[in-house]
């Protein structure tokens, strides 16, 4: 691990200002992804700004009837919160499908949104990887790619986003709240938060340098039946080959977001009304532009079957 300096921030704006002004600075909270990456020298921050202790650990009702989740709320706390379990069941289930109990105890809401891909070549510093080392190439495209993206990828990168939580937040239309070095706040719809890889796969979100996530807001509950289905190579402690976050609303329409297939949680609202009636994800347009590799092509029928299974389960409930 490379040497680094460390400080505790006293306020969110101060943390953002320090990150903006200090070359090579990074925020740290739970550290469940960052510390692994630092040990492998994939991430080499010169300075860590600890954003625990900023009061961002609360889950509060909003005036509009929704809920506001502080950036440093632990995944375990969020999954167990009674309001989340009752009104946003898909989020609680997605959180519990991720990682292990020990990791969920440390991992935070913001950190979960910012976790990096699990592409095996990203973690192997002997291999070219445009995400780790821009311009070096992509070993995955001609390599082992069964875990990787089937849609929204580019010639520079076919990595997937590994988060379960983000797939549920996508189906719930969450908004990410941030603050910058000047104290300016903004809300970013989750649909616009994660970027597709394009020519710059190392830029993964629409955050500006130093911008700090302070909370995630969920709109008022939509009711209906919530499901999170995760298909993976082993029953626990594994990332999704395909995951489906689905809500069958009381008016009979559905909402679906798919994980494990793209650089961001994948949702096509225009096709969702057809899905509860039995339309297939391809014909409904969910994956109309898919471009899998030979090794990842199995994910296309897997998405179709997983969406169908989720819809069947919801109808039965
Ligand atoms: Fe790197 Fe992306 Fe290629 Fe994986 S898919 S090797 S993360 S550039």
| SS content category | alpha+beta
Which distinct ligands sit in these coordinates?
Answer: iron/sulfur cluster
pLDDT average, as an integer? 95
**Count of helical stretches:** 10
Radius of gyration: 19 Å
Instruction: Give the tally of β-strands.
Output: 11
Percentage of residues in strands: 15-25%
Q: Uncertain spans, ≥5 residues at pLDDT below 50? A: none
Biggest sheet, spatial arrangement of strands: 4-5-8-6-7
- Major beta sheet, specifics? 5 strands, antiparallel
General form: globular
Share of helical residues: 10-25%
What series of H and E elements makes up the topology? EHEHEEEHHHHHHEEEEEEHH
End-to-end CA span: 50 Å
3D structure, described in words:
The chain has ten helices and eleven strands. The protein has helices at 12-21, 34-39, 75-80, 82-87, 89-96, 101-106, 109-114, 165-171, 269-272, 299-316, and strands spanning 5-8, 25-28, 47-50, 59-61, 67-70, 175-179, 185-189, 212-218, 225-231, 242-248, 254-259. Helix 5 packs antiparallel against helix 8 (165-171). By secondary structure, it is an alpha+beta fold. Strands 4-5-8-6-7 form a five-stranded antiparallel β-sheet. A three-stranded parallel β-sheet has the order 1-3-2, covered by helices on one side. Strands 9-10-11 form a three-stranded antiparallel β-sheet, sandwiched between helices. The model has no long low-confidence stretch (mean pLDDT 95). Iron/sulfur cluster (SF4) is lined by residues 117, 119, 121-122, 129-131, 138-140, 148, 157-159, 201. Iron/sulfur cluster binds at residues 117, 119, 121-122, 129-131, 138-140, 148, 157-159, 201.
